[in-house]
UniProtKB/TrEMBL annotation:
<dbReference type="InterPro" id="IPR018236">
    <property type="entry name" value="SAICAR_synthetase_CS"/>
</dbReference>
<keyword id="KW-0547">Nucleotide-binding</keyword>
<keyword id="KW-0067">ATP-binding</keyword>
<feature type="domain" description="SAICAR synthetase/ADE2 N-terminal">
    <location>
        <begin position="6"/>
        <end position="232"/>
    </location>
</feature>
<comment type="pathway">
    <text>Purine metabolism; IMP biosynthesis via de novo pathway; 5-amino-1-(5-phospho-D-ribosyl)imidazole-4-carboxamide from 5-amino-1-(5-phospho-D-ribosyl)imidazole-4-carboxylate: step 1/2.</text>
</comment>
<comment type="similarity">
    <text>Belongs to the SAICAR synthetase family.</text>
</comment>
<dbReference type="InterPro" id="IPR050089">
    <property type="entry name" value="SAICAR_synthetase"/>
</dbReference>
<dbReference type="InterPro" id="IPR028923">
    <property type="entry name" value="SAICAR_synt/ADE2_N"/>
</dbReference>
<dbReference type="InterPro" id="IPR001636">
    <property type="entry name" value="SAICAR_synth"/>
</dbReference>
<keyword id="KW-0658">Purine biosynthesis</keyword>
<dbReference type="Pfam" id="PF01259">
    <property type="entry name" value="SAICAR_synt"/>
</dbReference>
<dbReference type="InterPro" id="IPR033934">
    <property type="entry name" value="SAICAR_synt_PurC"/>
</dbReference>
<keyword id="KW-0436">Ligase</keyword>
<dbReference type="GO" id="GO:0004639">
    <property type="term" value="F:phosphoribosylaminoimidazolesuccinocarboxamide synthase activity"/>
</dbReference>
<protein>
    <recommendedName>
        <fullName>Phosphoribosylaminoimidazole-succinocarboxamide synthase</fullName>
        <ecNumber>6.3.2.6</ecNumber>
    </recommendedName>
</protein>
Length: 235
């Protein structure tokens, strides 16, 4: 399967048409962005690491009954995916307080939440991807009904139920993560990626951050952190 016309370029990936109208190729980039792309950088090999990490996680989720857009990995940084119509909502699943949650609500960083929290954010870079509630989602026509939002929450929690114990077995705490979904033939599929760009991983023993916060907070060794996550996934 070969790349044809470019369809889209985002912060972390490019999408290309293929000879099959129902399939696209996702090319993972080495670019790093933070704070709505106000901070930019690049790390050679990061795209290939994210492609491999995301591929392994999608395969794990598929084995556990969660339907995704993943088809196969074509190359170091190329993934073949089903073409979906993206739902313009970022679904953020939180287990432990940090980041914007701590800033907004004053919950101490590192505090384990009493239950898994699922939040919705409106996918709009010009607005800074603001947090929204169910009524906002309907007013913005992000979804057709409250039932769709309930389904997104349900799948988000199912993903967490699979990934949290998996990463726990790899001596990593899954702090929080962002999911994106798309519609394909009337079905909701998990799409985009699941990588250290979109998840927060802390080492269980040291609380060392092994994700994009190393770039956000100028901690250094971004690529080494991503390599460590992949090593633990494969190990």
């Amino acid at each position: 399967m070969e790349k044809l016309e470019q369809l889209y370029e985002g912060k972390g990936k490019k999408l290309y048409k293929t000879s099959d109208s129902k399939l696209v190729i996702s090319e993972f980039k080495d670019d790093l962005t933070a704070f709505n792309a106000k901070k930019r950088g690049s790390e050679s090999g990061k795209g290939a690491l994210n492609c491999k990490i995301s591929s392994e996680i999608f395969k794990l989720l598929e084995k556990n009954g969660i339907k995704t857009h993943y088809v196969e990995t074509l190359d170091d940084n190329l993934m073949l995916c089903k073409l979906v119509e993206i739902i313009p909502i970022e679904v953020v699943v939180r287990n432990i307080a940090t980041g914007s949650l701590s800033k907004r609500l004053g919950i101490k960083e590192g505090e384990v939440l009493p239950f898994t929290l699922v939040e919705f954010y409106y996918k709009d870079d010009s607005l800074g991807d603001p947090i929204i509630n169910d009524e906002h989602a309907l007013i913005l026509k992000c979804v057709s009904s409250l039932e769709v939002l309930d389904k997104l929450r349900e799948i988000g929690r199912k993903v967490n139920d699979v990934l949290r114990p998996f990463f726990d077995s790899k001596n990593l705490n899954l702090i929080d993560f962002k999911l994106e979904f798309g519609m394909c033939d009337g079905e909701i599929l998990l799409a985009d990626e699941i990588t250290p760009d979109s998840c927060r991983f802390w080492d269980k023993d040291t609380n060392e951050k092994l994700d994009k916060d190393r770039f956000r907070q100028d901690l250094g060794n971004v690529k080494m952190a991503y390599e460590e996550v992949l090593k633990r996934i494969l190990g």
